Amino acid sequence: MADERVLLRQLQQWLTLRRQLLGPRAYVEMPQSSVPQETPQPGMPSSSPTPAHALGADHLLPRRDLPRVRMPEIRAEADLFSTLPAWQQSRSLEELYEHIHTCTACPLGLTRTNFVFGTGNPRAEIVVVGEAPGAEEDARGEPFVGAAGQLLTRMLQAIGLQREEVYICNILKCRPPNNRRPTPQEVATCRPYLWKQLELIQPAFILALGATAAAALLEREERISQLRGRPIPLQGMIMVVTYHPAALLRNPQWKRPAWEDLQLLRRLYDAYRQQAQQ
Ligand code: SF4
């Protein structure tokens, strides 16, 4: 038993090191100039799908016939030791919710009003990931239901998507007091729950709202100006990063670049669906 624990610790250290060494290489640069730009027309989704090769992204698009998201570190442990906790063995979002909705693994579990799991299509091709629940979300137990949530709904509608078509969740499931930024420790503690959600949903695309959400998924800090405007491969999916709706409410001058990000997501999504039908 003691040997197993030592081996497990060594494996975890190796996997952490491997992720640190290989993680950044998974980040494929795509020059902004290679992404076709369109004139913003709010409320008007792209009508004709752009072929993937025209986007310069055909080699990046997820494959519908291959499993995409896995929890690599945890799966490696499972394969070796079969010691997965019950929540990691969940086979549905409902089962996962039942396992984790009373979580107090970090201090936020003691101050939340409601656990905010996520809502939407459990088979969504697009998962929208924000940072953490705000006051309204904490009160109602649902993500993106305040003013920022209403803007998110309009942003999705502008590219021809309804909220019910996508899945919406946050990195953190509990509200940080006074909407403060989550600590790295809180992010690291809660992030595996998000990866399990993604593993169960198997989306092709992530729309990351804000640099904090993107950084949590990429496991490294980067400015949003360096992240937005291009497709970022992530665990077999494509991530598009844009501004958080709450930031857009405070900075309306960012709405135009956000619109361009949304159009990019729509074009990639159309190209992916077109490719999948061939
Ligand atoms: S934020 Fe996440 S890790 Fe922290 S208590 Fe809530 S569910 Fe658990």
Model description:
The chain is of the alpha/beta class and 278 residues long. It has a single domain, classed as Uracil-DNA glycosylase-like domain (Uracil-DNA Glycosylase, subunit E, 3-Layer(aba) Sandwich). It contains twelve helices and six strands. The protein has helices at residues 2-22, 52-55, 72-81, 93-100, 108-111, 135-140, 147-158, 184-201, 211-218, 224-227, 245-250, 255-277, and strands at 119-120, 126-130, 167-170, 205-209, 232-234, 237-242. Strands 1-3-2-4-6-5 form a six-stranded mixed sheet, with helices on both faces. 38% of the residues are buried. The structure holds iron/sulfur cluster (SF4). Iron/sulfur cluster (SF4) is lined by residues 103-106, 108-109, 172-174, 186, 189-190.
**CATH class group:** Alpha Beta
What's the arrangement of strands in the largest beta sheet?
A: 1-3-2-4-6-5
Distance between the termini: 52 Å
* Arithmetic mean of pLDDT: 81
Biggest sheet architecture? 6 strands, mixed
State the secondary-structure class: alpha/beta
Q: Which architecture name does CATH use?
A: 3-Layer(aba) Sandwich
